[in-house]
Sequence to fold (208 residues):
Amino acid sequence: MASATSRKWLTWRVAVFLAALAPLVFWSWQVANNAAGPEPGRYLLLNIGIGGLWLLLLTLSLTPLTKLTRWKGFALIRRQLGLWTLAYATLHLLSYALFILGLNWALLGSEIVKRPYIIVGMIALTGLAVLGATSNKWSMRRLGKRWKSLHKFSYAILGLVLLHFFWVVRADMSEWALYAAIGALLMATRLPPVSRTLPKLRYRLSRS
Ligand code: HEM
Fold:
């Protein structure tokens, strides 16, 4: 019985892993088959950036979803999705370095002056790297209560990513506004009065 349960969770984790990997395989396939438009490098950069934002929002939705449903599966993939967010953000930086800078780091200074949102992206990526590096059991034990406080910075990182994206968008803000609304909703679920309501909501839903 115990092994059937652990097999179930392993299957769930592997399914999440494959689902997170699939967009990267698809975009690479598009580039390899000349189906990524006139600027394949930019195609990768932008899609991977959006993918990273999606993953960050998904990661942050897992705690409220756990409170709302009590389903263990959400909590089980939190670390994995957090690390995927970091992986996408790193690949986004690599695409920038490779396809936009052409690995010419001397250009970085003038690029930052021209596009200050790059600094915001870099701070967000650094934050993600710190959270990724401390997302293991050893760091949890060592940091104790401070671990939770540290990981609350994920919301500040979301704010930075949204600012980075806001700065990039020039004309149509509707896509940005949608992500910002989802982000605001997720942040609202962390406010103590809302957070306390979620388990009660589950109770009410289960009785109706
Ligand atoms: C070292 C850090 C980063 C650098 C250098 C960087 C660079 C860039 C650049 C050059 C663009 C495209 C601007 C254009 O349209 O020309 C961009 C867009 C974007 N980036 Fe970043 N970024 C960084 C970090 C991040 C992180 C951590 C995330 C999210 C996890 C992110 C998400 C996005 C998103 C969502 C867009 C907009 C995509 C679109 O317009 O479709 N970036 N970034």
Q: What stands out?
A: The pocket of protoporphyrin IX containing FE is lined by residues 45-46, 49-50, 52-53, 56, 89, 92-93, 96, 100, 118, 121-122, 124-125, 161, 164-165, 168 (CB under 6 Å).
